[in-house]
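note to self: dont lose this again. the chain is below, predicted strucutre after it. 85 aa total, dont forget to put it in the shared folder this time
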Amino acid sequence: MGMICLMIVFTIVPRVKMVWDLTQQKEELQQQKAKLLQVNHSLKKQNDELNSPAAVERIAREQLGMVKQGEKVVVEVVTGNAKSK
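---
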């Protein structure tokens, strides 16, 4: 009877541990998935905002120095020769 109990313990315990480990891994992966879904949602929102006509115009003006037809460009000139007293 003792041998049968030992055989059952040696066959069941490793399987129970494997199920436990896999359950823990599944929970970790579900948490990681939730975080990645949040990041994905945030990036899609940011992408939509940057693809709006207003954002495209703002970027073109600020970063590329583009102007609309008929507008005049005003450029501030800073000289490095001015000395402070």
